[in-house]
Design goal:
By secondary structure, this protein is α/β, with parallel strands linked by helices. It has 14 helices and 19 strands. Helix 9 packs parallel to helix 10 and helix 13 runs parallel beside helix 14.
């Protein structure tokens, strides 16, 4: 068993920004610090060690990091007399020691492939008499983060990375530069992990990768994601989800595996990014508008109850009014059940960042508002179709607004609320499956009442 430096009695707090991969990495960081004898605390003020797991996909995430991290410097001094501020994740990988220019208080920087280096960096930082930033952004190509200890944020759900990195190089995206090239885990190691999670009581597993549809290509010579889905289904886990999927690699074999494996949830997040073939080409997405629409049709033909969600970028450099109208018409034709919409954010180091775009911000904002309104209407219409139906919900906790209301997600990944029955405690429901009769539908959630006992 790996021996880690002892930091007994030190307290820590981890704050995470960005994608699901970052949340998985944060669980590994917590597991590492637990293995060093550290104790987790709820606030930065209480922490000897503060770790920020960062995202660099959009500029807003950088800005939030700078604000929150700067606040760590002005927080009350912990009982130990010294607070170590650490930055990990994609911003750390991209910026390295240059982070100190924006976050003067930073002590430790560790990249996306250097999680295992954190304990030694912390020991060195605590021993330093003079303040200097300690950096490790070297990728560990021999191991995956899954080899490290972990402390799951939820006992009933687990993130399971099946691959790291990305080979697609979309022109707007920083991910290949901060997460590296595609590298898949063996199917055997993934299945062993999933079987262990099921034995530990996990009800839902989310398979993670920047492009899960190309899983296995670098070690098996061809993608084997369809086979992986079927094999994970045999572990007996109640629910299987996965993210992310690139349309160009979504095969009929994967669609069939989804349709034929009962514990694969009827939800697909399939980022389209634009409805204009011209813009898709400029983005290097490698599919056309027509191909995406055909793919959506094949998905829904195989799984009539499928919920289809997507990502859409507004204001990509050079987008014209005609291009944007193509996006609106595709959204209407596909009739997405939900969508995440974004205004294009220039990421230094990507090809798109070099493209000058004279389109005024107010024009882009007006387009974004129109798209957001359409998406809201479609989401409401989609949820309204579930009025009166019985929805199986994995209960995740109490509502942040009302501790008498429980919250979970349906098989189609809809947020569902229901009142806590009189005399019942939240712990009677968290991590269990409950049948909820839907009697209220909104754009962003469903609500209803419990039928039967949770299981």
């Amino acid at each position: 068993m790996q021996q880690y430096p002892k930091l007994a009695g030190k307290t820590y707090h981890v704050k995470t920004f960005g994608c699901q991969m970052n949340f998985h990495d944060a669980e590994r960081v917590a597991g590492l610090l637990d293995s060093c004898g550290c104790l987790e605390v709820e606030t930065i003020d209480e922490a000897d060690i503060v770790v920020f797991m960062t995202c660099s996909v959009r500029e807003g995430a950088d800005t939030r990091l700078y604000g929150v991290a700067s606040g760590a410097a002005s927080a009350p001094t912990p009982p130990s007399g010294k607070r170590i501020v650490c930055v990990g994740g994609c911003v750390a990988q991209r910026s390295g020691a240059d982070l100190k220019k924006n976050i003067p208080c930073v002590d430790v920087v560790f990249g996306t492939g250097a999680l295992a280096a954190l304990p030694e960096l912390l020991v060195e930082a605590m021993a330093e008499k003079k303040h200097k930033v300690l950096v490790d952004t070297e990728e560990d190509t021999e191991h995956f983060s899954t080899d490290l200890p972990s402390r799951r944020a939820e006992r009933f759900h687990a993130w399971v990375p099946i691959m790291t990195g990305c080979d697609n190089f979309c022109t707007y995206c920083i991910v290949p530069y901060v997460r590296g090239r595609e590298r898949s885990r063996t199917m055997e190691s993934i299945l062993i992990e999933c079987e262990g999670l099921v034995a530990d009581g996990v009800r839902e597993i989310t398979l993670l990768g920047q492009n899960v549809n190309s899983y296995g290509r670098n070690i098996y010579g061809k993608p084997r994601f369809a086979e992986l889905l079927r094999e994970v289904g045999k572990t007996g886990v109640d629910r299987i989800r996965f993210t992310s999927s690139n349309p160009k690699d979504l095969s009929d074999e994967v669609i069939a595996a989804m349709a034929e494996t009962p514990n694969v949830m009827p939800h697909m997040h399939l980022a389209v990014q634009s409805g204009s073939t011209r813009i898709l080409k400029a983005m290097n997405r490698r599919y056309t508008r027509e191909q995406y629409i055909d793919l959506a049709g094949r998905l829904r033909s195989a799984m009539p109850d499928l919920a289809l969600s997507t990502d859409i970028i507004v204001g990509f450099p050079g987008e014209t009014a005609e291009d944007f109208e193509d996006t609106l018409s595709l959204v209407r034709e596909v009739a997405f059940d939900s969508a995440f919409t974004f205004i294009y954010s220039k990421r230094p180091g990507t090809p798109a960042a070099k493209i000058e775009d004279p389109t005024p911000h107010e024009v882009i904002q007006e387009r974004f508002d129109r798209l957001a309104e359409l998406v809201t209407d479609l989401s409401h219409a989609s949820n309204a179709r579930d009025m009166g139906t019985l929805s199986e919900v994995l209960v995740e906790g109490v509502s942040k607004r009302n501790d008498k209301v429980m919250v979970g997600h349906s098989r189609k990944n809809q947020t569902v609320h229901f009142p806590l029955p009189d005399g019942a405690a939240p712990e009677d429901f968290v991590g269990k499956l409950a049948d909820i009769r839907i009697d209220e539908t909104k754009s962003w959630y469903l609500a209803g009442s419990l039928e039967g006992d949770p299981r």
